[in-house]
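Next comes a single protein record:
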Amino acid sequence: MPELPEIVALERFLAEHAVGAVVGRVDVAALSVLKTFDPPVTALSGRDVTGTGRWGKHLGLDCGGLWLITHLSRGGWLRWIDEPSAAPPKPGKGPLALRVHLFTPEGATPAFDLTEAGTKKRLAVWIVTDPQQVPGIARLGPDVLAVSEPEFAGLLAGSSQRLKTALADQSLIAGVGNAYSDEILHAAKLSPFATAKTLDAEKVGRLYAAMRDILTDAVQRSSGQDAARLKGEKRAGFQVHARTGQPCPVCGDTVREVAYTDKSFQYCPTCQTGGKILADRRMSRLLK
């Protein structure tokens, strides 16, 4: 799932390549991707692309006051095409959900695709006059890179969730998902199962510093990368996420996993839980 660093990089990529262009034809290959129908997607055609926007993990393109906003969800991505096919795509064929054709001032005719891998189709697109009309944006908490340490401490103090859940709760704080929450908790040396409101000031400070460092570094590494390379850049920086069974690069202990029905997270017992192995729903109880 693209998280804040990748969405920041995609926004910057669109700002460089799409702003100043004119929207041409918009091809909808998967009707289910559209979550709004008024204005229709055809209303984008002929409009100037005047800006971009980001709200948590939502990405937006300002087309002269009419916004195209997407949430890429778990399997979604944005793909830039310098020379797209002139023929409209066949609905329901492959991962393509939506294609936006553009006309640049230089006379080029590129396009960008919104695609989604996997069978669970969750990628969403809204056409709105105000980004706050998107329900997910209206519910967002403060942006993770804009929140101050005292504000962050206050948010945690009011949450009875486990740290892993709290960090990825977009209504609490916006921008972090499954992957970066694993990395942040590992860097802060905190258990994913610790309760947010029980952290003392020293642990909150460690968590805040780790969050800022991990995300700032990821944004810097992603900046300037084209859309095709961002996924690889994201994976290259991981210490524990998606590294189940491999040695922790900090202490050498084996990276462990807690698995749920449709997702999992990873952690290092030595670095984060005092050597304890956390049980998951496949076992009889949770060890805090």
